[in-house]
Amino acid sequence: MEKFIIKCIKCSNNNSRVNIHKGNIDEERSLNDLAELFKILGDSNRMKILFGLLEGEMCVCDIVNLLGMTQSAVSHQLRILKQSRLVRVRKQGKSVYYSLNDNYIRQIFNYGLNHIKEIYNV
Asked: Which end of the chain has the least Cβ crowding within 10 Å, N or C?
């Protein structure tokens, strides 16, 4: 694939910023992983599940009752969240309980909500 280089009068004398950022963009795997995280967070049902889990551990039945979704739909979303390591599972007898995997998930959620509140003056 051929790379295109665009030059303008204003930028042609100072490429230091470009060179600094090129090194960071080369970390493509990290950026791809981050894009995947945002794809997973881009589903409103998964966001509702995470919102419910902000308050603490819940079983599938609790999440079904909270969201008014079918157990199958909730289980499907939980499987995606578990595979993405956003939630963790604890089994107690026949019951399965879900919780946020770590505090970073809570922080991402809260930063996102704060951003929305700020831009919409809520």
From this structure: N
Domain ranges in the chain are 44-119
Q: Residue for token digits 């589903």?
A: 43
pLDDT exceeds 80 at position 113 = yes
Rounded to 10 deg, the angle between the 44-53 and 103-119 helix axes is 120
Q: Residues 53-103: pLDDT tens digits?
A: 999 999 999 999 999 999 999 999 999 999 999 999 999 999 999 999 999
Token pair 């599938």 is at which residue?
Answer: 60
CATH number given to 44-119 = 1.10.10.10
- HSE (side-chain half, CA atoms, 13 Å) at 78: 26
Q: Rounded to whole angstroms, what are the CA distances from 80 to 9, 29, 33?
A: 49, 20, 15
* Residue 56 backbone dihedrals phi, psi, to 5 degrees: 140, -175
